[in-house]
Predict the structure of Nucleoside diphosphate kinase.
Amino acid sequence: MSKERTLVLVKPDGVRRGLVGEVISRIETKGYEITAMRMLNADRSILEKHYEEHNGKPFFEPLLEFMSSGPIVAMVAEGERVIEGFRTMAGVTDPTVAAPGSIRGDLARDQGTKVVQNIVHGSDSVASAEREIKIFFS
Ligand code: IDP
Ligand code: MG
């Protein structure tokens, strides 16, 4: 069975720009099922856990600052190969080169900030997805 769950976050730039509905719509139109959702102001401790793999990198502090700069929307999406599927829908990390048609390619661009603002987060593996879902939905 290849049915999976992934954690999707609409980051503060996406919420500020009113793109929550657009992201939800793309996930649902693709055919994945959203099985949990909440809006929150993420504090430092939750973000440190979520982004622990990036601790120590030059963009870590700007990333935490950006991610706590406004509300975010966390959701769980389910479906066969949804982890890979949502990463494809999101596009690559850098919105300047993310493919047109992807969320980052269509909706984001370089804002000249220390951290890349790119609308969404999506888990990158089964292990990350299970770990990250526990952080936001425990
Ligand atoms: P991903 O979100 O595409 O999985 P990651 O490498 O996990 O990318 O990085 C997490 C987030 O940190 C990115 O989405 C982006 O917001 C930011 N980021 C990643 N790499 C850089 C960088 O080299 N400079 C600035 N910000 C970065
Ligand atoms: Mg990542």
